[in-house]
Hints:
By secondary structure, the protein is an all-alpha fold. It folds into two domains: 14-88, Rna Polymerase Sigma Factor, Chain: A (Orthogonal Bundle); 106-197, Arc Repressor Mutant, subunit A (Orthogonal Bundle). It is built from nine helices and no strands. Helix 6 crosses helix 9 (182-191).
Amino acid sequence: xxSLLAPSRPVPSDADVFRxxxxxxxxxLRAFAISLCGNVDxxxxxxxxxxxxxxxxxxxxxxxxxxxxxxxxILRNTYFSIHRxxxxxxxxxxxxxxxxxxxxxxxxxxxxxxxxxxxxxxxxEEHREALLLVGASGFSYEEAxxxxxxxxxxxxxxxxxARAKLAELLGIDGPxxxxxxxxxxxxxxxxxxxxxx
Length: 197
């Protein structure tokens, strides 16, 4: 006879919970890595290196804290370490980097989305990174600040400047001037006065 107090399935160990959390974040890590690298193969390598570093440092992760932000921070730091070693910035003269960031929403015309992608490549890397974390990846300003290793006010400033620059490049005065989609919504929020904190 089984005890009524015995669990019907095994309780996951901390390692199992940690592993499952890492697996759940892989698509988000990959999307962010592609936006940083501009190359799918390099992004996949970056995600793999990030996951290896995270797994080998699992004992340093504090249970109950934000695993997603911790993983994004490792990915970002790894990217910039590699970037510094190469001694050059990601080049995107043909717009391939921007074209991989997102798929156009069905209600946006292909021309509007292409213009948006080109405009996105014309803002600085730090502004684009902040906008992608807050606008496209759904991080709060506080989480994005943790990932970037800067103050919350710096992230807010970068996001606002990125939105203002994109609105300027695209000639956007308000929501009526652009279609709907996760990336274009990030610009519209600024031009319409909305923000996420």
